[in-house]
Amino acid sequence: MSHFYGVFANTGTVLLGSLLGLLLHKGIPEKLTDGIMKVLGLCTIAIAIPGILKGQNQLIMIISLVLGTALGTLLDIDGKLNSVGDKLSEKLNKGKENKSGNIAEGFVTASLLFCIGAMTIVGSINAGVSSDNEMLYTKSLLDLISSTMLSASLGIGVLFSAAFVFVFQGGLVCLGIWLGSFLSEPTINEIICAGSVMILAIGINLISTLKLKVADMLPALLLVPLVCMLFS
Fold first, then answer.
1. To the nearest whole number, what is the mean pLDDT of the chain?
2. Sign of CA dihedral 175, 180, 185, 187
3. pLDDT for the residue 10
4. Which residue stretches of the chain are H helix?
5. Which whole-number Å values give the CA distances from 172 to 21, 103, 104, 138, in the listed order?
6. What's the domain count of the chain?
7. CA dihedral 184, 195, 79, 41 (to 10 degrees)
8. Whole-angstrom Cα distance, residue 160 to residue 165?
9. pTM assigned to the model
10. 110, exposed or middle or buried, with CB in 10 Å at 0-12, 13-18, 19+?
11. Alpha-carbon dihedral 78, 56, 191, 210, rounded to 10 degrees
């Protein structure tokens, strides 16, 4: 059970932060929220850069992301995630005007922001392999702040992302338990590199009108170990 303490903590902080954001929604000026969200986007980009630099072979990153994005687009992962948010929106609103923001946008943006990146991947694998939850605890604190600002801006959809955080990170921990030390450090670094490119895309989405379908890139994370094996 100790393997999952970090997952429980991260899920809890996302729930708490989302609730705080919803409560403070009316008390936070729109200009302030917009400004902080843009800064959060810039910080997200800054966080992505060190992870991208961990990659040792750019061809692995390119091949994994191209093939992964092609697969994700064919599977329409982004569309399916948005569909989940839309269904939640329909059930909650029941034909009434949505006063809590775009639920689909909040759900997808928060789910990807909280689940894709170096801290999630390495932290979850570390928790699975050695019950080391330190990195996930650090991430939990960051997500507490992020979820508060996101839910104040994007609404109740951010709250539902806690379920995705629990399932996604829990799955990675289970994978870490199963794999043990099977994955080499270079392979983990290449996974971090590909994931950090997705974090960069999320940061761009937060600060601009350009909306990249980051969810369609997710299969790349599964393809990285296979591509690494081919290159080795």
1. 85
2. negative
3. 96
4. 5-23, 30-53, 58-75, 77-93, 103-115, 118-130, 134-154, 157-179, 185-207, 219-231
5. 28, 26, 24, 17
6. 1
7. 160
8. 9
9. 0.75
10. buried
11. -20
**Contact (CB, 8 A) for 68 and 227:** no
The residue assigned the tokens 């290159």 is 231
Neighbours of 118 (CB within 10 A): 23
Token duo for residue 168: 């996604």
Question: Per this entry, what is the length of the chain?
Answer: 232
Contact 78/132 with Cβ under 8 angstroms?
Answer: no
Q: What is the Cα–Cα distance from 112 to 150, expressed in whole angstroms?
A: 12
Structure tokens at 185: 């450090």
Q: Which two tokens stand for residue 224?
A: 């990285």
- For 37, the token pair is 């969200």
Q: What domain range includes position 113?
A: 2-231
Structure tokens at 230: 């081919």
Question: Residue 99's pLDDT band (boundaries 50, 70, 90)?
Answer: very low
